[in-house]
């Protein structure tokens, strides 16, 4: 293996090595690895179905195409979607695809028991679930009786490549899912890819198909267009995120200043009122004490006068006679 490795999770490339006639071996192997989690890993073979394009008028102006569609031996339908962009609605998106697939298998007047189970597998390049596991699966369980399954016609799988890339203890020798996800990771080195190919014949066949696409000019051009679309989308999201961050920071600063000023004024008024009250009490106490002393001295003068003492005599025992006399006059 020489040269730059193509991205195995490019949606066009994934469809070329997993979703075309002749890809049954690697698709069957991958499905057995994923569905082992829910006990459906006894698949012997699958029938790859044509890619089903959902027209623009159905989903609001944007057409969409499922990456891989297949039918298993028991009649169950499997849809696989690779979504490297963060579309923020993978739950609703997956339910939409499931419902379209589920309802298309019955005509008017037919028996509902003829409806096939539909399994959706989503390989994600952005974190979606707040779980630690790299692989999560969902069914319709009763809320308070978690062991009561309403029906098995709905099964959804989410595989998180971001969490897998963070995984330090990958076990490519004993864990088949780890092997496949390591193969899917475009950052995996050539030496590791060579090692995986020797371990797993299905992965080798998938890799051979990728090598074939890399040598076909038309297919390589389509692959590059799909890669560019993802890069453009991510660049737009990042630019919008930076602009939003700056705008949010500016608004936050303005709102923070206003709120800070408001809180500061309220706190200042409250603190000022508290300090004013304390200072007023101290000043009032001081003035009250001074006034009390004045009145007490004036009362002494009055009492002495009533006893017949002259001001000259009284002045021998008190000070500021004139001032005290004025005070007594006030009283």
Describe the overall structure.
By secondary structure, the chain is α/β, with parallel strands linked by helices. It has three domains: 11-215, no CATH class; 233-273; 291-330, no CATH class. It contains ten helices and eight strands. The chain has helices at residues 11-18, 24-35, 90-103, 161-166, 176-184, 190-199, 201-215, 217-306, 311-314, 321-330, and strands at 46-48, 53-54, 64-65, 68-72, 77-83, 118-124, 135-141, 149-160. The strands form two sheets. It has a six-stranded mixed sheet, with helices on both faces. Helix 1 packs across helix 7, helix 6 (190-199) crosses helix 7 (201-215) and helix 8 packs across helix 10. The chain is elongated and about 135 Å long. The model is unreliable at 54-64 and 323-331 (pLDDT under 50).
């Amino acid at each position: 293996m020489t040269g730059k490795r193509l991205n195995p999770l490019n949606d066009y490339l994934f469809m070329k090595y997993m979703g075309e006639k002749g890809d049954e071996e690697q698709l069957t192997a991958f499905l057995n690895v994923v569905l082992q989690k829910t006990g459906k890993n006894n698949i012997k073979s699958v029938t790859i179905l044509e890619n089903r394009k959902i027209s623009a008028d159905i989903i609001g102006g944007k057409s969409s195409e499922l990456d891989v569609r297949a039918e298993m031996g028991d009649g169950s339908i499997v849809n696989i979607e690779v979504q490297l962009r963060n579309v923020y609605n993978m739950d609703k998106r997956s339910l939409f695809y499931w419902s379209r697939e589920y309802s298309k298998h019955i005509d008017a007047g037919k028996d509902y028991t003829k409806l096939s189970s539909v399994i959706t597998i989503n390989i994600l390049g952005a974190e979606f679930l707040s779980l630690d596991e790299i692989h999560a699966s969902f069914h319709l369980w009763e809320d308070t009786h978690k062991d009561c399954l309403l029906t098995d016609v709905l099964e959804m799988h989410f595989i998180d490549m971001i969490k897998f890339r963070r995984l330090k203890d990958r076990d490519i020798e004993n864990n088949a899912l780890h092997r496949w996800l390591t193969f899917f990771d475009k950052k995996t080195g050539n030496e590791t890819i060579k090692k995986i190919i020797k371990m797993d014949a299905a992965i080798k066949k998938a890799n051979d198909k990728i090598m074939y696409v890399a040598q076909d000019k038309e297919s390589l051009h389509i692959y590059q267009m799909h890669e560019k679309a993802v890069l453009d989308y991510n660049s737009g999201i990042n630019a919008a995120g930076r602009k939003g961050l700056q705008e949010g920071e500016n608004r936050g600063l303005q709102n923070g200043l206003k709120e800070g000023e408001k809180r500061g004024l309220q706190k200042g008024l409250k603190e000022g009122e508290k300090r004013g009250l304390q200072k007023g009490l101290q000043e009032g106490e001081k003035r009250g004490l001074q006034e009390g002393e004045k009145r007490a001295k004036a009362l002494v003068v009055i009492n002495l006068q009533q006893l017949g003492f002259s001001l000259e005599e009284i002045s021998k025992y008190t000070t500021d006679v004139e001032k005290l006399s004025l005070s007594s006059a006030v009283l």
